[in-house]
Amino acid sequence: MNLTGIVAVSGKPGLHKLIGQNKSGYILESLDAQKAKTIVNISTAKLASLEDITVYGEDEDLRLKDIFAKMKDATNVPDAKADGKVLRTFFHKVAPKHDEEKVYASDMKKIVSWFHVLKDMPLFSEEEVKTDAAAGDKPESAKVAKAATTKTPKPKSDNKATSTKSAAVKKAGGSKNP
């Protein structure tokens, strides 16, 4: 499952795909049927990437990606508008080690609604790009490329404009003293 570029925006319902960024904000496309494109302000919008979201766990935090994988294998996923007790029992099946005191019913509803949006999308079934295996081959070539593009320091030039300017400042400063 590849959740790269899928974000939740505070104050906006649903999920969005991050398309790009311009000087005024982030360009987002909604993942619903309308595919509406919007720009959200960089300074006021809070984006949360689904890749980075975790759920409170008893011992350690649970990654949302892992919960989605278990939800995908589950036989029947309840509707997001289901009762809190139904969602809680379902969450015991897909995330048995979640912290019951810190994970609220509203959080579970949000996760289930996100799952229903994502489950039919092609990115949900595609494999995640392996960065570890690719990174293992690239460091040597990256070091070579970095060494080839490393800028050599420029020699200091004896520019008379800078030396006369500093001399002029010294002369002007010296004349003000009594």
TrEMBL record:
<dbReference type="Pfam" id="PF21186">
    <property type="entry name" value="DUF6852"/>
</dbReference>
<feature type="compositionally biased region" description="Basic and acidic residues">
    <location>
        <begin position="128"/>
        <end position="143"/>
    </location>
</feature>
<feature type="compositionally biased region" description="Low complexity">
    <location>
        <begin position="160"/>
        <end position="178"/>
    </location>
</feature>
<protein>
    <submittedName>
        <fullName>DUF5606 domain-containing protein</fullName>
    </submittedName>
</protein>
<dbReference type="InterPro" id="IPR049282">
    <property type="entry name" value="BVU_3817_N_sf"/>
</dbReference>
<dbReference type="InterPro" id="IPR049281">
    <property type="entry name" value="BVU_3817-like_C_sf"/>
</dbReference>
<feature type="domain" description="DUF5606">
    <location>
        <begin position="3"/>
        <end position="50"/>
    </location>
</feature>
<feature type="region of interest" description="Disordered">
    <location>
        <begin position="128"/>
        <end position="178"/>
    </location>
</feature>
<feature type="domain" description="DUF6852">
    <location>
        <begin position="53"/>
        <end position="118"/>
    </location>
</feature>
<dbReference type="InterPro" id="IPR041218">
    <property type="entry name" value="DUF5606"/>
</dbReference>
<dbReference type="InterPro" id="IPR049280">
    <property type="entry name" value="DUF6852"/>
</dbReference>
<dbReference type="Pfam" id="PF18347">
    <property type="entry name" value="DUF5606"/>
</dbReference>
